[in-house]
Amino acid sequence: MNLERSNRKHNRMKYTAIALVFTLICMLAYNLVPGVSYAGKEGVFVNGSAYFTLEEVALSKGTDSQSMQFRVMLNNDSETALNFNNYGVKVMTSDGRSYYASLSEKADAVVQPGTSKSYAFIAKLAPGLTSDELLVDFFDRSRGNADIGALSVQKAISFQQNDHQFVFNLTDADESYTGNTFVSVQAVKAFAIPSDNQWKITLQTKVKVSGTDNWNPANLNYGLNVGGGKTFPLKASTVESSQVDGATTTDLLLTATLETQPELEKLTLDMNKNDAAVTNLGKIDLGSLFQYVKLGEKGSFNSVGKQGVSIAVTKAEEINQSGKRQALVTAELHNDGKRTIANPALTGILVSKEQAISLATETVVDTDKYLVAGKTATYQFIVELPDEVVSGTYEFFISETKSTQTSDQKTSSSSTSTSGTGTTGSTSNTNSNTSSNTSTSSNANTNSSTNASTNSSQSSGTSTQASGVPVIAVDLDAGLTAGSGLASAGNYEIGQPMAFTPDNNTIDSNLEVSLVELTSHTNAQNGYQTVVAKFKFLNNSTKTLDLPNFSTEMQDAAGTSYPGARQTTALQQLIPQSAYVYSYSYLMPPSAKGTFKLSILEETSSSKLKLPIAAYQVAVHSTDEDTPLMSGKVSLYPYTVNILNWDLATYYTGGKYSYKLRMNLDIAKDAKVLVDDSFSSLEFELVDKENRVLGSMTQTLQGTNKLVNGIQTFDFTEIKSDQFSYPITVNVYETMQTATGTAKRLVTKLQQ
Prior knowledge:
Blueprint: H1 8-32, E1 44-47, E2 50-61, E3 66-76, E4 82-83, E5 87-93, E6 98-103, E7 110-111, E8 115-125, E9 134-140, E10 146-152, E11 158-162, E12 165-169, H2 170-173, E13 182-195, E14 198-210, E15 221-227, E16 230-233, E17 235-244, E18 247-258, E19 268-272, E20 280-285, E21 298-300, E22 309-321, E23 324-335, E24 341-342, E25 346-352, E26 357-360, E27 362-365, E28 370-371, E29 376-384, E30 394-407, E31 448-450, E32 462-476, E33 481-482, E34 490-491, E35 511-522, E36 529-539, E37 545-546, E38 551-555, E39 561-563, E40 565-566, E41 573-574, E42 579-588, E43 595-603, E44 610-619, E45 621-622, H3 623-626, E46 633-636, E47 639-653, E48 656-669, E49 673-674, E50 681-687, E51 693-700, E52 710-716, E53 729-738, E54 741-751
């Protein structure tokens, strides 16, 4: 550290006066010359037409050191070229102390007339200095290092303070490097997650290499200091790299596994020299990086190409699907940037805080591959909860899955610094200047971005794997809300249109879905209850729509779930201004009665999850208890079958009994509703007083040999017994074919 002393009072007055004069001149120029863009900006004049401005300043505070990175711009509005090597830069405090500033990037020294060039510097400062105490001072080497003026750090065009950053010269880490290269290590985010009775620490860092050397940041010796003199090695994996203005920034993932839970506030990242003594170069406090957000709060991405992208967990609930406890976490990805992005691959881990148990989730994302600017995408994470997980509080961690490269065996090789004509050297405050070239030269420092490492240091072997880069940690201190009980669903009335989640991918917004029938029947022969729910689909649009294929589930008050079996249908599309119906059947024990929760479920890419897109409380009507004898009308939506009269005659011929059922029918159909040959049928079943089945037959309402209006006769010739008791009853069922077999519901009884 180079420390100078000067007349403090004189310097403060001189710098303030120069900055004020420049500001006034710029304001005057703006008023006199239209289009002047530097009105009000602080600057230091080299001559009447050229001046310095302070563009970017980053103050980096490590645990026990501080550095400042900044850019100065030489604006040449004169008619002759200027050589930046004729000028020097240093950092000063308001009380007169000065600190050496070194060029941290290679750049062309010659600034042609009517152009501007920026130059990057770095300075090591005393700890504790704040931005309001700091100035960037300029001097003229051609005039014996005469002071030109100084600019306030606080008034720079861009200023930021990094509290988890350490900057060092590469020669401090590896003496084989002879160039003037600076390395900035920025700790960004950190996760601490329990795993198999251990604790995995994951640290996202950004390592910026500026200067004349190419160097692989993974070659540095990184350690996790847990306090008490204990340090654990951190495995370094390269995620991606980008180049801007000749500096390479590498996203580096550092991981370590600990046997016991660490005290997070004591953790530090140690950067060590690869020597026998493992010399410490510097350290960064990590405690405040283990940050948690609340439900609904956003967390930002810190990866290349994700500027303006954030994510928030909006819901965390416990649901019951197919009798299994599951945790369902919903998150919204917000693209507040300026360009379309590819939806990132995200993974989630649910942690029981009380029991230190972590559960890896399956991820479900919107089917769209890309997310345009200003839009949101929904991610959902599902995991089955083991019986032993009974925590009241949880944490949820979201990581972005990326390919990383890990060096198997690290070797370092130095890269020689080269300085071409017209290029600044590696220092600014020395007596030796690089030669200048007054001819026009192009700036080779173009911006580029790449996922591959651009470092020349090579490893003897590398392995590529998928790793999780920390994105957001959510504190679910309220636990998981109950998302599957009856109370979570609203009441439903038969016939009303259902409302679905707006982001569902199954139900078109122009398709009206309603429940038109919901009845149950208990079969005395096999002892189970069949519930049948009939759905109506109405196309209100002017175009043909696909009929949706979704799953359904009924859940009773005790939380027991019953999946629905969908009726086999032939129709796949629905023309405009028409309707169609099909049913779902549910097998339940006879004791399941009353009100149920009916959930409409959307298929997902996860084998464990079907997303609820609608849920209602529904009352099931039992046809066993109140089905009238000889009902006048039978509803089989969209059909209404009116049995005007009927009779049943018995015949005994050749030692066998037979029956003849004669009915006078009036059949009507809703003209708007389409039906096909897969529509339900009517089954007529003969039972005696003891409820013994004597015979049955099936008749269709659609297709060949369908039921028609008027008098029709049906013969039951295959009577299964000659021992039965009167009266004989005809049970009339609606039957439908499903993937799991034939389902039927009782619609009326005809009794002698």
